[in-house]
Fold this protein.
Amino acid sequence: MIWNKTKKENVKRAETKKLTTGFTVLLIPNSSDAAKTIEMSFDRILQVFTAAVAVAIIIIGLVISMMVHNHKLKKTIEEARADVTELTETNTALEDKITSLNEQIDADREVFSKIEDTISKKEEEVAALSEEAAIPGEVPIKNADAILVEDPYADSEGGATMGLVFSTVKGALVVAAGDGEVIHVDSDDENPFYKKGIVVDHGNGYITYYRLNGEVSVEEGARVSRQDVMAVLDNDGYVAYEVKKDGEFVDPAGLLGNSN
């Protein structure tokens, strides 16, 4: 580098400050004897330096910005990983809970199945007992002796009783032979030797008929259970008892068993 400065002996010092100054760069390639020179003014050098500083500042700013962004991104990734880990643990806990609940449901199903079986058996037992209770198998007299006799009115114009006739005393209670519904209470028009007639539908095709002289205490539509009181004899006399099965008269003695 060669510094050029023009001097004139007759130039004043003030004028010397106004002269243009700069640098001349001498370039000598290793493979050639020819030298090249490049002249650069001070202002140009200052511009280049300023530009270089600006570029350096921009680059440093970008590097700092990338570092900050990278730090935030790394932090975000770590937080995301922590959230994923927490979600995984929560999901595992939920799966364990679901498994436990499924096991409990299976156990409850077994319990409910046993309960249903028990209820079903109880219902069958109740139905069987209800069906048995509806069969007219009781002697229709209580609270007094009930003596089975021949029908005293068999040869009368009232016609023979299509069942059994009991001889009993005043105050004897006439009771339902089985569970059922009272479907008729009226004067006994079919047999003039009895003042009252009671008809009970027991279901399963069974209907019972009670003919007596006395005070009736039930009304049509009433539900009665086996041995419920339906009437009281007001004098010594007879109680006629008949049973129909599916519309046909049957022998009540076969249903009474050892009760007769």
